[in-house]
Structure formats: C-alpha cells, structure tokens
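Work Package 4 report. The design task specified in the project plan requires that, given a folded chain encoded as structure tokens, an amino acid be chosen for each position. We show below one input record used in the internal validation round.
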C-alpha cells in the first residue's frame, strides 16, 4: 500500500523529503484505526460472554424473566432466543423499556407484563457501574424507573457488563453521574436541593435528535448528578434522602438489589461477584 502511495506522490514532494512525514502520518492513522476497531471488538465480545453465561446459569424452563435495557442486554436476549429454540424453554419475558419490548418481540419471545406476572424468577440487566459492595449506577439509557420496578419484583437481579463497568467505588470509571428521574415541573428545585445537601452539580440531560431535554418513557426529565468523588458516601442513606424530595420519581442508585454480577473480560473470560 505504501509503495502505491509513493508512486502517487509528485516528484517535487519526494525530492523535498516531505513524503516521509506523509507516509508516517498515514501509517499512524491506519494503526490507530485498526487498534480502535480491535478494542471495540474486544468490548463487544466481553459483553457477549457475560450475557451468555448469565443466561445459561439463571434462565430456567417455566419461568418469568425480566429483560433489562442497554447494549449488553441485546446479547442476553439473543441467547435466550437461541435456548428457547434449541431447548423448547417456556418463558415469559417482562420488558423494562421500549427497547427491551422491541427486542422481545423481534426475537419471537413471549411478551408479558407485571399485571399478569407480578413476581419474576429473575431479571437480567446491565449497569453503568458496579462497585465492590454491589451498589449499581443505572439509567445511562434513561430507563432507570422501569428497570428498578422490574428488578424489585424479581427474586434475583443478575447484572451483566463488560470489564469497564467494574469499579472499587462509584465514580471510579463512570463519569457521567447518577441519573435522577424527576417530574418536569420540579427539576430546578430538585437540582438546588441536591446540590445544597450533597454537593456536586446536577445537569438536565438534553436530547440528541430533538430540541430540548430527554423525556423518559414515563414522561419525566432526567438530572445527572456529578457527585463529589473525594468523599465517602453511604449510598443507601443518600438514595433514601433524595427519594424524599418532592418531585423525585426515582434514582439510578440500585442499593442492595443485585444478586450477582458477571463481567466479561478482554480475553473472553468472565469474572463473577455475588452480593
């Protein structure tokens, strides 16, 4: 390729010596592109490994399964569909979002709801971050309320994630903050109260493909709280206090809810953590 590049250069450029820096620049660009592609493939493979192992260990015949939201859950639904076809499993799948509902329908799985299935055997969901005490940050995709409702109805909440979501403490790797779903009319007072009580900053999450803020599946706004990372936090107490603020619908803190977490690694292995 570089020989072809040299032949395409003008004689004056070659004689001036500038061709060498051009070739080096091209080489670096190609190397960077290939390295990025490899990293992305490793990340996706890690998600897939975690999802497959969780589904194989927790999804049983004649059960009701909560289906979470996010990129890792896509692999979980694919594996569930594979097992339903191969093993004839009888399952009812409860979605946590519009995305999850579409995944269930597209894979030909049985779609259920909490009215008919108020108790679930397990829920499989992703996380934005998991700390050493199995406290989760969820809601990066804006589905925290329905995710928490479904998780609260499940006997076991199983978390699937890649290695970048595994942290000793919250905020170590995930820097987008803790989502707080709020009633639209209350977002300014809530912002002030949380900042005054706990520090940090809260920002109204803005939409990408529309003008104005993100609106959740439930018609609410989301405030992302960048909390002080240099403090030790009792997340259970913090969560309870924030939930008492009028207008707060729910938070992306999942405390004492997860049963087990699977983290896919770069080498294809999966590490596990239990509550």
């Amino acid at each position: 390729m570089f020989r072809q590049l040299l032949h395409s250069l003008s004689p004056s450029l070659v004689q001036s010596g500038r061709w060498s820096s051009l070739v080096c620049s091209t080489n670096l660009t190609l190397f960077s592109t290939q390295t990025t592609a490899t990293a992305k493939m490793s990340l996706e493979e890690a998600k897939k490994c975690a999802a497959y192992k969780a589904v194989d260990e927790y999804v049983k015949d004649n059960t009701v399964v909560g289906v979470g939201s996010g990129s890792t859950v896509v692999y979980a639904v694919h594996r569930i569909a594979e097992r339903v076809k191969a093993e004839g499993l009888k399952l009812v799948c409860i979605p946590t979002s519009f995305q999850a509902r579409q995944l269930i329908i597209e894979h030909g799985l049985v779609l259920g709801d909490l009215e008919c299935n108020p108790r679930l055997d397990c829920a499989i969901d992703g996380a934005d971050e998991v700390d050493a005490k199995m406290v989760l940050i969820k809601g990066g995709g804006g589905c925290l309320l329905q995710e928490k409702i479904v998780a609260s109805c499940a006997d076991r909440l199983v978390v699937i994630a890649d290695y970048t979501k595994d942290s000793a403490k919250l905020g170590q790797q995930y820097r987008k903050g803790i989502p707080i779903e709020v009633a639209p009319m209350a977002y300014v007072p809530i912002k002030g109260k949380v900042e005054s009580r706990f520090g940090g900053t809260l920002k109204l999450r803005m939409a990408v493909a529309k003008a104005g803020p993100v609106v959740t599946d439930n018609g609410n706004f989301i405030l992302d709280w960048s909390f002080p990372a240099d403090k030790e936090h009792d997340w259970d107490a913090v969560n309870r206090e924030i939930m008492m603020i009028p207008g707060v619908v729910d938070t992306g803190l999942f405390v004492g809810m997860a049963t087990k977490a699977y983290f896919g690694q770069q080498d294809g292995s999966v590490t596990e953590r239990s509550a």
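Residues 1-38 have pLDDT under 50 and may be disordered. Validation will be extended to a larger panel in the next phase.
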